[in-house]
Amino acid sequence: MGEINLQTPEGRAEALRRMLTIRAFDSEAGDRFADGEIPGFVHLYIGEEAVGVGTCAALEDDDYIASTHRGHGHCIAKGLDPKYMMAELYGKAEGYCNGKGGSMHIADVDAGMLGANGIVGAGPPLATGAALSIDYQDRDQVAVGFLGDGAVAQGQVHEAINLAATWDLPAIFVVENNQYGEATPVDKQHNVDNLSDTAQAHDIPGLTVDGMDVTAVAEAIGEARARARNGDGPTLVEAETYRYRGHYEGDEEPYRDDEEIERWQDRDPIESFRDRLIDRGELTAEEFDELEAEIEAEIEAAVEYAQEADEPMPDEAYDDMFAETPPEIERFATAARTDGGERTASSRSSSEPRSDGGRPGGDRR
Amino acid sequence: MTAQTEAELETETETMTVREAIRQALREELDRDEDVYLMGEDIGLFGGVLEVTGDLYEEFGEERVRDTPISEAGFMGAATGAAATGTRPVVELMFSDFAGVSMEQIMNQMAKMRYMFGGKAEMPVTVRTTEGGGMGAASQHSGTIHTWIGHFPGLKAVTPGTAAAAKGLTKAAIRSDDPVFVFENKMIYEQKGAVPTDEEFTVPIGEAAVEREGEDATVVATQRLVGESLQTAESLAGDVDTEVIDARSLYPLDTETIVESVRKTGRLIVADESPLSYGTHAEIVARVQEEAFFSLDAPIQRVGTPDTHVPFSPPLEQEVLPDGDDVREAIERVT
Prior knowledge:
The complex is a heterodimer.
Chain A lengths: L8 H26 L14 H9 L6 E3 L5 H6 L4 H8 L33 H14 L6 E6 L6 H12 L4 E7 L2 E2 L2 E2 L20 E5 L3 H16 L5 E6 L17 H8 L3 H11 L5 H24 L18 H13 L26
Parallel strand pairs in A: 1-2, 2-3, 3-7, 6-7
Antiparallel strand pairs in A: 4-5
Chain B lengths: L2 H8 L2 E5 H15 L3 E5 L15 H5 L4 E3 L4 H12 L4 E6 L9 H8 L2 H4 L9 E6 L14 H6 L4 E3 L4 H13 L4 E6 L6 E5 L12 E4 L4 E5 L2 H13 L5 E5 L2 E3 L3 H11 L2 E8 L4 H13 L8 E5 L8 H7 L3 H11 L1
Helix pairs in contact in B: 2-8, 4-5, 9-13, 10-11
């Protein structure tokens, strides 16, 4: 499997690194949002790291994932660079989406990341579509559609699973059951005991795994991937996990108590995996602390990069609508180029040269 | 006359129906590009309820002419995901009224992915769908939604009024890297016309066609009303010399050809089957008054469905659907 083979010490170290990176990234994103530096909304993945990393550990680099509104963890698990992710959260031109997507829409299709998604339940049909391309062109890939427990109530999710099942497409649907659909507990939204029971309706395997255990998730997804590649169609995997933070940053969370949060934190996916690696003699407590400090420094550097990065130019608002820009839009772009030569607000001085070097997608502009 | 129309006339043509022209476009593009495939309800084995795909299933097989379950959200979303990942799906949405159940995938995914991803997604998807009343199909199978699609940023919308336009626009849509909706009026499937046989013939998206030249009034028409307007123009010849333009593409819209015509004639009638308020008519009128206000010699006239749904009973349906007589009355009001 790709870069994170949990059968090897190197793979396990990489899984730990990615889980820590997700936590550090999202902790920092939460702080910076609270400081008013990041516009919009942010939905943090803290507590759910084992699901994204466990899933991507079982995938090859060129497999596809379609994500949710809580997508930062999926991006890092898939190997995206926190630097350009943070720049996107800041709405900067250097971000993955040139500042047009933000937290809820980070994407890099070339890296197999079909986007975080602001619409609950909208990712699974896209994953089915990616699986259709794979199947149609007979490529050795799979497509994963992530969804939350709330999305299991969405009609289009079941349409997507039904289509993938009917056509035996190489798709995997991963339900991240973090116990709350926004502010409503999962048992008040669904009548089934396990959300994986819904797989029965489509006659595909459905299983529920411990989403706080990166190894358990990776094993389940590994089997699902093998099935998919064998032409046996999709699998639905429910990962039971927990959202440490609110639905969105700023959520006052009147719907749950500290005791519940602490109970789940006792099974923290990073700490438990760390302890296992220490027990196996693959890691010392000191090494862990060093790794954590190193990653925190990396994320601080990402924040610095994002803060310093260029704002988009006004005329870029008219780019990327179509492969070929129609006159309806072009006239506004032309006007913006004519009278909008300067960067806005917190930007650097316009005389400073713009650095496109190494920027994702920079060569496509 | 646009350059494209002249080019069309120079190539060899064959007379065929709109339905045959679309099927020929699909066949040629399936032949030309292996990444192109068709998907939709009953389009394969059954040949499509409107018989457009016909025998393509026998010709190309079930992988390339795919029957889908009755789940528009699922397959519209799958087409979107598939377009973003290296293939070129052509979706048939049986009746445009059914867009309602798939609108999430159309408006928030298909239309927005390229933009929200900063240009890092391709979206070469074509959606063919049927529109319009006239066959007693009642309100849920007779609607026109091209205004919705033309209004929504990120989507292109074309509305052929002739067999040649139907073939050329379908091929251009399939070759386009943008999401294009091709709106086929179901009452013109049997309408015949001269269709270029050159396999490289396409109609550029965003170019209108002057189907009849005239000096006294301009009718900008779409779909079925192109043919009806041409008949009306002929019947008025001698009294009023009417220019008839097939808009062909609603987004992008060929403002230039329309404005040029209005500058010549000074009078404009917009004939489109969609509901009159807040729609396609309004957009064309707005552009003309922005660019050719001082060329207008009379108030602009709109011909369309009077903000009703399309009723079932034939006399009621005839009452609300716009036709050539409505175009004639509109021309007579301003000349």
